[in-house]
Amino acid sequence: MNTLNTLGVEKPDYSNWVSTRFVYIPAGLGLLCVGLSIVAPVLIVVAVLFFLMSLYFLYARYRFSPAGGNVQAQVQDLVLAHLDWDGQGKALDVGCGNGPLTIKLAHKYPNAQVTGIDAWGEMWEYSRRVCDRNAMIEEVAAQTTFQKATASALPFADESFDAAVSNLVFHEVRDAKDKRELIREALRVVKKGGRFAFQDLFQWKSIYGETDELVATLKSWGITKVAFIKTSDAAFIPTALKLPFMVGTIGVLYGEK
Ligand SMILES: C[S@@+](CC[C@H](N)C(=O)[O-])C[C@H]1O[C@@H](n2cnc3c(N)ncnc32)[C@H](O)[C@@H]1O
Questions:
Q1: I need a surface site. Which of 45, 51, 91, 130 has the fewest CB within 10 A?
Q2: 197 alpha carbon – ligand 1 mean position (Å)
Q3: Ligand 1: residue whose CA is nearest its atom 12
Q4: Ligand 1 test: best mutation among 105, 117, 123, 169, most atoms within 8 Å of CB?
Q5: If you measure from the C-alpha of residue 223 to the centroid of ligand 1, how many angstroms do you get, rounded to a whole number?
Q6: Does the pLDDT at position 117 exceed 60?
Q7: Is 127 in the pocket of ligand 1 (CB under 6 A)?
Q8: Does residue 169's CB lie within 6 angstroms of at least one atom of ligand 1?
Q9: Beta carbons within 8 Å of 77's beta carbon, 6+ residues apart
Q10: Ligand 1 pocket member 115 (CB < 6 A)
Q11: Where in the chain are the domains?
């Protein structure tokens, strides 16, 4: 990993959501199929499919990166754009990864104290160490705290935070069968009247059901204001990335507790 920018200054590492293994593994399997096609010619078709898969992920990785338009950062910015908060008090970022949203929150709200939690498992190349380093480079270390915890049982008392955000985390959490319970858990630690903005695959019906019903469910929990926008409708999302497993089913649930 190159940790210096072109001026030799240390740069933060937010990592790309499309890891290089999504490019290399299908490419490797494609090459294997080409080799095996000597004994089973039909495997050439499978090889082509693997190469196409590899190319698709290479394209997605490029578009998410700063060089390819920074779609990843723009998706994160959409969460903050829907957090209608005055920035006074404490905010929580559930599943902070390498801390991009935590750090963006700290920049946007200089009076706020922001906590980022994550389980930092093997599925992702993220860590608390990188979060701390990123916060230092971005000059918000005094405003930010990073802590290992699971989104399914947040280690905070009810109503501890004035605001909460989360970006593309809930669908990943393995220790929660019903992912809606993770929204409930995140809202539990928000003060009454506090603000929230959560982005996830909320239009993936087998995970969250119908969006109208999801919004109604939050209201049935006593949440004062709940609204929803489809991220996939945003002009900055390239059409090729609107597949359901990329950003085609994501949206932002936001409002006031
Ligand atoms: C797609 S990444 C998003 C990271 C970050 N929010 C961002 O915008 O870059 C999904 C994150 O969910 C985290 N995660 C997975 N299971 C979790 C759990 N049980 N509790 C907290 N975080 C979890 C992963 O470690 C990873 O950082």
A1: 45
A2: 15
A3: 169
A4: 169
A5: 24
A6: yes
A7: no
A8: yes
A9: 104
A10: no
A11: 21-64, 70-256
pTM for the whole thing?
0.92
The domain at 70-256 falls in which architecture? Answer: 3-Layer(aba) Sandwich (3.40)
The per-residue pLDDT for 125 is 85
Query: Relative to the CA of 17, which ligand 1 atom is closest?
Result: 1
Report d(CA 76, CA 167) in Å as an integer.
Answer: 7
pLDDT band at 2 (very low <50, low <70, confident <90, very high): low
pLDDT at 33 over 70: yes
**Average pLDDT score, the chain:** 94
Please report the pLDDT score of residue 102 as a whole number.
98
DSSP the chain: ---B-TTS-B------SS-THHHHHHHHHHHHHHHHTTT-TTHHHHHHHHHHHHHHHHHHHHHHSGGGT-HHHHHHHHHHHT------SEEEEES-TTSHHHHHHHHH-TT-EEEEEE---TTSS--HHHHHHHHHHTT-GGGEEEEE--TTS-SS-TT-EEEEEEES-GGG-TT-SSTHHHHHHHHHTEEEEEEEEEEE-TT-HHHH--HHHHHHHHHHTT-SEEEEEEGGG-TTS-GGG-SIIIIIT-EEEEEE-
Query: What is the average pLDDT across 119-135?
Result: 92
pLDDT-derived band at 6, boundaries 50, 70, 90: low
pLDDT-derived band of residue 4, with 50, 70 and 90 as boundaries? low
- For ligand 1, atom 20, the nearest C-alpha belongs to 150
User: Quick check: CB of 203 below 6 Å from ligand 1?
Assistant: no
Decide if pLDDT at 90 tops 90. yes
